[in-house]
User: Which sequence fits this backbone?
């Protein structure tokens, strides 16, 4: 269980701004809450994350194709999907601080504190028993741990019952009974819990049915569902097949906070996989396994991931889980994997009057496919990478550095070209090398300041390799290739640079592990 580390989050936010990754939106006007702009390094990292996801999802799978649907959709889309009637969060206000919270999140954070107590007991026992320690047996038999687990199970059961029955008073009663205080003021004076619809509405000039109210899409999935037949027929797709999409979504989050973790405008990377009814659970397990593998090959730390099964299933799901990541705020959702049944396609059939079915020639019949969804927040993935990458290190010579150990395939710049001096023909040679590399890699050229200072700058933005041009380069056409993570240096021929760097930074090497 991760402990919340507000200090780490503050450091990441400051670093992200100082080094051109993330800026507060419209900052010269004092910013806009929960809106952020991605700077020159941030946009490169985002694009690389998107590229890695797209290649793994679409390029590597013959039966998955892409789509880019409009943000604006006919308003009946959201009636059919259930968003107009059911896309609500249970909100509660603290009377003293005037802060607003999601009632279920307050309860989940209380549960996380109890889980931390269990972890503390496990750590103490592990130290006491050493190699003989059996964690599973300890969790199953220790009285104190069992008592903590019973508290967690009771809270979860009552929260689930209250959410499913929409008895919001029961949520408030549970919060008060547990003595949950406002994290800001410490006050325990709460208002009643009430539902708040998260969709942004806007006006459109004219619609065929005369209505003018439309919505900014709160998710990208519906654009895939309404195009199911278009893609299936034009692509001659056979079940099982998937449709992938990367795009913006918008939710009027009342408590958007924790930097880019929860924003009102965000980007999703989603894939809807259409399967034969009855086969959905084996595909659900397949995509759970496939997606966690995608995450882990990045090397962000095996222990930073865990699965969390949903207690309170959405109205459309028969199975759902999250891949959670160990953010500075503790373990939080990074990606969702859901078995959505045939809810969406059937709902759109009903509201549109159009058949959305697949004709199976083997069975000689038509049916509405079931859907397995994988949905990852790009902004959360970006924060996960920064969280795992951010390091403050003391080097052998006693000096300190802040380094972003971003996976090389995702790093904004793959190499920096650094002439040792701004004279003796070294800059000219540096430019020549830069010009040969920039066709294949995103490169930076830097000749300002001492070489050590330039290394630190590249460390801070996560550049995995630096190429230093010195006087020996002019004699034998070799350069120094410096490795960011170890500070080790290797001498390499200029003619071998492209091949060597490609081998070190290629997304292909990651994809081959899938």
Assistant:
């Amino acid at each position: 269980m991760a402990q919340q580390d507000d200090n780490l989050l503050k450091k990441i936010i400051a670093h992200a701004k100082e080094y051109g990754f993330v800026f507060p939106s419209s900052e010269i006007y004092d910013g806009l809450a929960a809106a952020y702009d991605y700077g020159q390094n941030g946009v490169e990292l985002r694009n690389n994350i998107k590229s890695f996801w797209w290649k793994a999802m679409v390029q590597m799978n013959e039966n998955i194709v892409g789509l880019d649907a409009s943000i604006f959709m006919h308003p009946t889309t959201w009636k059919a999907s259930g968003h107009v009637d059911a896309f609500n969060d249970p909100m509660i206000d603290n009377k003293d601080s005037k802060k607003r919270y999601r009632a279920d999140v307050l309860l989940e954070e209380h549960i996380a504190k109890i889980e931390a107590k269990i972890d503390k007991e496990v750590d103490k026992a592990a130290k006491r028993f050493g190699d003989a320690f059996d964690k599973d047996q300890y969790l199953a038999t220790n009285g104190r741990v069992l008592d903590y687990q019973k508290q967690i199970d009771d809270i979860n059961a009552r929260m689930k019952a209250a959410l499913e029955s929409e008895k919001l008073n029961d949520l408030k009663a549970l919060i008060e009974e547990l003595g949950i205080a406002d994290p800001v003021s410490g006050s325990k004076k709460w208002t009643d819990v009430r539902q708040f619809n998260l969709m942004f509405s806007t006006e459109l000039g004219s619609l065929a049915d005369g209505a003018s109210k439309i919505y900014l899409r709160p998710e990208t999935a519906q654009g895939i569902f309404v195009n199911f037949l278009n893609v299936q027929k034009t692509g001659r797709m056979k079940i099982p097949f998937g449709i992938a999409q990367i795009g913006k979504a918008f939710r009027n989050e009342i408590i958007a906070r924790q930097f880019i973790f929860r924003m009102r405008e965000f980007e999703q990377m989603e894939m809807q996989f259409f399967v034969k009814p009855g086969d959905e659970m084996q595909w659900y397990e397949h995509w759970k396994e496939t997606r966690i593998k995608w995450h882990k090959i990045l090397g962000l730390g095996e222990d930073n991931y865990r699965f969390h099964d949903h207690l309170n299933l959405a109205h459309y799901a028969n199975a759902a889980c999250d891949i959670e990541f160990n953010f500075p705020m503790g373990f939080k959702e990074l990606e969702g994997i859901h078995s959505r049944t045939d809810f969406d396609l059937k709902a759109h059939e009903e509201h549109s009057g159009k058949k959305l079915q697949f004709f199976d020639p083997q069975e000689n019949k038509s049916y509405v496919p079931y859907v397995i969804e994988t949905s990852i927040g790009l902004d959360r993935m970006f924060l996960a990478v920064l969280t795992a990458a951010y390091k403050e290190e003391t080097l052998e010579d006693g000096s300190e550095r802040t380094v972003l150990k971003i996976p090389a395939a995702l790093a904004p710049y793959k190499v920096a070209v650094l002439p040792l001096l701004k004279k003796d023909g070294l800059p000219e040679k540096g430019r020549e090398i830069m010009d040969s590399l920039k066709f294949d890699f995103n490169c930076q050229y830097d000749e300002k300041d001492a070489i050590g200072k330039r290394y630190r700058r590249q460390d801070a933005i996560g550049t995995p390799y630096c190429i230093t041009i010195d006087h020996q380069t002019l004699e034998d056409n070799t350069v120094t290739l410096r490795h960011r993570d170890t500070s080790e240096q290797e001498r390499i021929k200029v003619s071998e640079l492209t091949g060597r760097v490609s081998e070190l930074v290629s997304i292909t090497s990651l994809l081959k592990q899938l």
